[in-house]
């Protein structure tokens, strides 16, 4: 069993910053990839930022240059630094931990409970 605990969401004005954290605990082993997703009302959940198996990062086009994903492997924690926030960034942000096979396919997915980010105009 894997548990993901997120924190750091809140209400911020346009142009402000927030830092999200997600700490994983439990039975974590294998090829682990951690990412951040978000889901706005009436929209599908989308990838915001994540790590690849090779340790590189990838970002949604809408957040490039504003958001930065980082991690502390010793603490099984991933962060999302969000700067220059816009109203369209308003969403519930979810931490994801996936276990991949040797070809990179997902064999297990775990999700956090989500944290609300609201950006006022």
Rg calculated over all Cα atoms: 14 Å
Percentage of residues assigned to helices: under 10%
Give the rounded overall mean pLDDT: 95
Structural class of the secondary elements? Answer: mainly beta
Main sheet summary: 7 strands, mixed
- SSE string, helix = H, strand = E? EEEEEEEEEEE
Give the total of beta strands: 11
Alpha-carbon distance between the two ends? 40 Å
Tally of helical runs:
0
Shape: globular
What portion of the residues fall into strands of 2 or more residues?
Answer: over 45%
Low-pLDDT ranges: none
Describe this structure in words.
With 121 residues, the chain is mainly β. 0% of the residues lie in helices and 59% in strands. It is built from no helices and eleven strands. It has strands spanning 2-7, 10-13, 18-26, 31-39, 46-51, 57-59, 67-72, 77-82, 91-100, 106-111, 115-120. The strands form two sheets. Strands 2, 4, 5, 6, 9, 10 and 11 form a seven-stranded mixed sheet that branches. β9 and β10 (106-111) form a beta hairpin. The radius of gyration is 14 Å and the shape is globular.
């Amino acid at each position: 069993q894997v548990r993901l605990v997120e924190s750091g969401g809140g209400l911020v004005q346009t142009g402000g910053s927030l830092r999200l954290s997600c700490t994983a605990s439990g039975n974590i082993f294998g090829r682990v990839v951690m990412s951040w997703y978000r889901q706005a009302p009436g929209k599908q959940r989308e990838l915001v930022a994540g790590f690849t198996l090779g340790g590189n990062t990838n970002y949604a086009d809408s957040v490039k240059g504003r958001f930065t994903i980082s991690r502390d492997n010793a603490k099984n924690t991933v962060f999302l630094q969000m700067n220059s926030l816009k109203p369209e960034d308003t969403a519930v942000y979810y931490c994801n931990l996936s276990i991949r096979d040797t070809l990179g396919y997902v064999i297990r997915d775990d999700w956090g409970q989500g944290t609300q980010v609201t950006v006022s105009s």
